[in-house]
Fold this sequence. Notes:
Layout: H1 12-21, H2 43-60, H3 86-108, H4 120-125, E1 166-168, E2 174-179, H5 198-222
Antiparallel strand pairs: 1-2
Helix pairs in contact: 2-3
Amino acid sequence: MSGVAGYSESTPSESEALNRSQPNDGIFEEDSPEERPVRERISALDAFRGLTIAGMLLVNNPGTWSAIYPPLQHAPWHGWTPTDLIFPFFLFIVGVTTHLSLAAMVQQGADADFGRGVSAYERWIGDAEAPHPNLGTIEQPPFYALPIDAHSAGTKGGPRTNTRGQVLDVRGNVIAGLYAAGNVMAGVSGPGYFGGGGTIGLAMTWGYLSGINAANDAKANAG
């Protein structure tokens, strides 16, 4: 190899073999158009998208704002008009296409959009037995959703809990009516921290368990 940046004495075949043998740590190189698999189009979704775009153009350019056909106006507060459906239609299209695109990339084992799972760190924290180490599909109900905001927060310690999420006092006795979940409870990692996002799963799991047990206790006490 030469000391001049961008110059290599190896032949093209040697360079290609070298690039294929080394993991792509953090740098995602897009496949050429010939290498990308052709995704099947859904005619109904394409037609719905086209009609929605046409509707958006119509409601945003009614011809004259001084004399607008009533269905091309938003409802003032109560009720709805066809114009009020344009944005929900777009959200529906985005949701469907995101699911289809993500499911295809999971099956292919490669993220062609954002390159997730290409670095050694991402592969290390992912599921090595899955088709894609960091992506997965949502198929079996029941489904739960919650908003997640980006913050910098963490604790080293917290109150001990039992398997029902009930907080224990210093003697190991249950404190009636007090539950804990997420960062406020003592974690399984003790004073350590698994890594970015490591508390999200614990918060979701213990929040779910604590919520169910707290509701059951409240019903039992009310009865």
